Automatic annotation (TrEMBL):
GO molecular function, one term: phosphoric diester hydrolase activity
Protein name per Swiss-Prot or TrEMBL: GP-PDE domain-containing protein
Listed Gene3D superfamilies: Phosphatidylinositol (PI) phosphodiesterase
This protein's record includes keyword DNA-binding: no
Amino acid sequence: MRTSLIAVALASLAAAAPLEKRWAYSKYWNVEGHRGARGEAIESTLPAFAQALVSGVTTLEFDFGVTRDNKVVVWHDETIQPEKCFDTAPAFENDPDFPYVNKSMNDLTLAQVKTLDCGSQRLTGFPLAFTVPGQKLSTLEELFDFVDCATDEPVLFNIESKINPEVEGATKTPAEFMDVFLPILQARGDEFVDRVTHQSFDWRSIILSKKRLPSLRTSALCDDTTIYAYPEGETTGNLTVHGEGAGKWLAGINIDDFEGETIGERVARAAASIKADVLSPVATSYASPVASADLEGWVPFVNSTMVDTAHELGIETHVWTPNTAAIWEYLLDIGVDGFITDYPENVRRFFKAQYPELPLAPKADELRVQKCLIKHNQVHDISA
């Protein structure tokens, strides 16, 4: 065990204190379950969030889209992907929109979305994820109701609005997202709002949510493909080859307008300029030929200059999606404040074994979670 890493991590928790009140959960190391627990259950479904709760996450991380009839659905993709969902039946007889797979969430109603089976198929990249045949998608309110049932702990929510600034009409606009998202939070009261962070790659939307609801924390997502105008024909993001000027993802911001010898420093200052509370970079650069820090040639996107600059500016760093122990060690060594991981149970076991002094959130009672899952989860009857 490397005591230097523990010292860095504990110092990061202490440094986070000035970010105010925030929930009792600020005392725990921030382990976030990515799309619930994507490596352990079918992503973005109530069973995945149940798995995250019994794994003892600090934060549930997930995305939402908005349907044609302005309902907020917990789901990552802009479109209904055939490798994740399949059609069961039309929402009504002779529905001209049917089939719904491959269509945009923006072009479907909630009733149409509810006909999909998004639990029967296991992605090849996550061979250990358990399936729930017939699984329906949930609304944001349904997820919150399930969590309220499953635990009395004030677990946190890191919620990403899926907005595409590059393709007009692919999703609703930032204003349309905020029109339906913020009232759902506000209806649950100030204490609940204080448990939520709104994150997005489209920095226009987090600027807008901060303006409309100043108490709501925001997180500036970024990776190789969003920090600059993307080069024509480029297929892998990288840190050295980029288009000229600002891309569309950062609200017209050109990071090269900010001081700093490294891209990491400038990214952190750009996030501070929009008053983000959190900077959320990808762990591994898209240019990296290998996937883990213990392999020769690994290229990180997040680095110590990015993290140090963010901390100097009072910004936390929550990194996505580190899934190997070597990357976890690297991130602890440079002082990040949290992981958004597909394997929260494995992260917890790793911390318990290697860094037992890190404070971790309590696990939810598994029996209670399962009872609430039976009560709240929605599945199609596929027995026929």
